[in-house]
Automatic annotation (TrEMBL):
Family indicated by similarity: Belongs to the alpha-IPM synthase/homocitrate synthase family.
Highest rank taxon of the organism: Bacteria
Annotated Pfam families: HCS_D2, HMGL-like, LeuA_dimer
InterPro entries (alphabetical): 2-isopropylmalate_synth_dimer, AIPM/Hcit_synth_CS, Aldolase_TIM, Citramal_synthase, LeuA/HCS_post-cat, LeuA_allosteric_dom_sf, PYR_CT
Keywords, in A-Z order: Amino-acid biosynthesis, Branched-chain amino acid biosynthesis, Isoleucine biosynthesis, Transferase
Keyword Transferase: yes
Name of the protein in question: Citramalate synthase
Protein's organism: Aquibaculum arenosum
SUPFAM superfamilies: 2-isopropylmalate synthase LeuA, allosteric (dimerisation) domain, Aldolase
Length: 533
């Protein structure tokens, strides 16, 4: 396919998405999401704004090793009255461990006059100086033309002059931003086309916000008019109403057009898992009606629809659900369930004969557990263990006899109110029974330490395993304090990470279930042999 048909996908979830109300990424979150985007096959991953906050600083200090995508550091043009060489914001970008930089600058004269209170000539110089400075240390520099569509309508000559200044200074991409999300597709298409005609030598991108619900449509309209980069976020995350939903854009570009977005059929099947990974990291319930990836995207109720789909799915499905990693939900859907489970087994490396009767039992077990509240889309390690146990492919490394957790809230000798947790655990390893006691910062920490205290002498490989993240979701809020809870635990060693799940009306019990899977998965993954009883 010719380069003119190539669309470069730029994900800004870790920066734009972090501006969403209620979203607060940890460094671990950012790393996991970046690695998932890299597997999906996007061209650029914007990691954040170096110097803006400690989380972004820590992320860029030790960024993930990306195999396909380019890591991008975001920032802004130099400040008025400063040289590019002495601007602290630009210095942060220069020093960031990212081969690509993207800077935002004003292109609407209204903002230059009102917010910056500088001359138009100074604004142009800020753009050019900043890009030239970054170009000395970065493989690529991009310019985000803030409020470009409003600026173009208000003062076309100035908006275009800003683009020329960026291009002449060496910007590899000029990204036209609909920053307040108020432009409609017809205007986007017309303005992008005029920019292409006026500046035929530059490469253009589109960055659309969703304040009118048109961010995806605006992005596709820009592509039709000549844009060759699309900026967006997973699940449309972003401030106010969000950004262009990169998940929807990938599905539409790959399956509905002849554009080449760099994502082949194999990677396209990661679309649903990638979308749901983000929701699990944010401890949010996935949007059931989300295009392509929602639980209801390929759901069919009883009656004529089910009958028609059984004869030919194309009657009510615009694409086969498995092409985007999703699945069909219909009455008596054993075949769909079997295919889905077999695919997931293949993804986690579990080899099984599709005709093995145990596959049927596994399908029923998955259905039963999901009904109870288990969610395996974001807990691949627990799914793999459940499957291997039913298929007799994983041993029991240890078993729990009992545990007891106590919290002691009291005033200490200094007159300070403190709460201490103590866990007592009795485990069986092979033919040996062990009892350990440990204190911790909370009941889960105490339980984790007590279990490890018993296991590490027998299984030294667990010494470096760390609990990286812990999330709780209330599954039955109508039950109040008796509600069923789901606990997700992310564990890791160096750059290796895995997630497990536990469900129970008792949060400590749910936590132990997830912890048990986390340690068992590591032992199996490391090839450790279980002791004989």
């Amino acid at each position: 396919m010719s380069d003119d048909r190539r669309i470069h996908l730029f994900d800004s979830t870790l920066r734009d998405g972090a501006q969403t109300q209620g979203v607060d990424f940890t460094v671990s979150d950012k790393t996991a999401i970046a690695e998932a985007l890299d597997r999906l096959g996007v061209s650029y991953i914007e990691g954040g704004w170096p110097g803006a906050n400690p989380t972004d600083d820590a992320f860029f200090a030790e960024p993930p090793e990306l195999k396909a995508a380019s890591l991008v550091a975001f920032g802004m043009t130099r400040r008025p009255g400063r040289s590019a060489e002495n601007d602290p914001g630009l210095s942060g970008l220069v020093n960031a461990k990212a081969p690509v930089a993207c800077i935002v600058g004003k292109t609407w004269d209204f903002h230059v006059d009102l917010a910056l209170e500088i001359s138009h000539e100074e604004n142009l110089a800020m753009i050019a100086d900043s890009i030239a400075q970054l170009g000395r240390s970065k493989r690529e520099v991009m310019f985000d033309a803030e409020h470009f569509f409003d600026g173009f309508k208000a003062n076309k000559a100035f908006a275009l002059a800003c683009l020329r200044a960026a291009s002449e200074a060496g910007a590899a991409w000029l990204v036209l931003c609909d920053t307040n999300g108020g432009t409609l597709p017809d205007d986007v298409r017309a303005i992008v086309a005029e920019v292409r005609e006026t500046l035929p030598e530059v490469r253009i991108g589109i960055h659309a916000h969703d304040d009118t619900g048109n961010a995806v449509a605006n992005s596709l309209a820009a592509v039709a008019a000549g844009a060759r980069q699309i900026q967006g976020t997973l699940n449309g995350l972003g401030e106010r109403c969000g950004n262009a939903n990169l998940i929807s854009l990938v599905g539409s570009l790959a399956l509905k057009t002849t554009w080449d977005c760099g994502i082949d059929a194999e990677r396209l099947r990661l679309l649903t898992p990638t979308s749901r990974l983000l929701d699990e990291r944010l401890n949010r319930t996935p949007t059931r009606g989300a295009p392509y990836v929602g639980e209801s995207a390929f759901a069919h109720k009883g009656g004529l629809h089910v009958s028609a789909v059984a004869k030919d799915p194309r009657t009510y499905e615009h694409v086969p659900p498995e092409t985007v990693g999703n699945r069909r939900h219909v009455v008596v859907s054993d075949q769909a369930g079997r295919a889905n489970v077999l695919t997931r087994l293949q993804e986690v490396g579990v080899e099984v004969d599709p005709k093995d009767p145990k596959v049927g039992r596994l399908i029923e077990e998955v259905k039963r557990r999901e009904y109870e509240g288990y969610a395996y889309d974001g807990a691949e390690a627990s799914f793999e263990l459940m499957a291997r146990r039913l298929l007799d492919q994983v041993p029991d490394y240890f078993s729990l006899n009992r545990f007891r957790v106590m919290d002691d809230r009291r005033w200490n000798a200094r007159g300070e109110l403190v709460t201490e947790s103590e866990a007592t655990v009795t485990l069986t390893i092979g033919s040996d029974q062990l009892m350990t006691v440990a204190n911790g910062n909370g009941p889960v920490d105490a339980l984790d330490k007590a279990v490890r205290k018993a296991l590490i002498p027998r299984y030294p490989v667990l010494e470096r395993v760390r609990l990286l993240d812990y999330k709780v979701r209330i599954l039955t809020p109508q039950d109040g304090t008796e509600a069923v809870t789901r606990v997700m635990i992310e564990s890791g060693v160096d750059r290796e990470r895995w997630t497990t799940v536990g469900v129970s009306p008792n949060i400590i019990d749910a936590s132990f279930n997830a912890l048990y899977d986390a340690l068992s998965w590591k032992l199996h993954n490391a090839g450790v042999e279980a002791p004989k009883g």
